[in-house]
Amino acid sequence: MTLRKAGRLLIFAGVLVWAIYAVVWLAGGEPEVRQYLPFHLSGVIPGAILSRWPWRTVPEE
């Protein structure tokens, strides 16, 4: 797996957090942004860094 693919996967997971937020909100819950934001940022920030990293491949084991 290349770092670009791993980064895109992390970005996707970070954005998916807001889908969970929307489901809770639509179900009548009152979710707080501060509960979801750390999970979003922990996926999006490293994902953005990895997807633009100069080294494109991870050595296979």
**Which H/E pattern describes the elements?**
HH
In DSSP terms, counting alpha (H) and pi (I) runs of 4 or more, how many helices? 2
Calculate the terminal CA-CA distance, rounded to whole Å: 11 Å
Strand content: under 5%
Characterize the main sheet. none
Please give the radius of gyration in angstroms.
15 Å
Provide the helix percentage: over 70%
Notes on the structure:
- The protein has about 60 residues and is mostly helical.
- About 70% of the residues lie in helices and about 0% in strands.
- The protein contains 2 helices and no strands.
- The longest helix has 24 residues.
- About 10% of the residues are buried.
- The mean pLDDT is about 90.
Briefly, what is this?
This protein is an all-alpha fold and 61 residues long. The protein has 2 helices and no strands.
List the helices and strands and how they pair.
Blueprint: H1 3-26, H2 33-51
Main attributes of the structure:
61 residues, elongated, 0% strand, mainly alpha
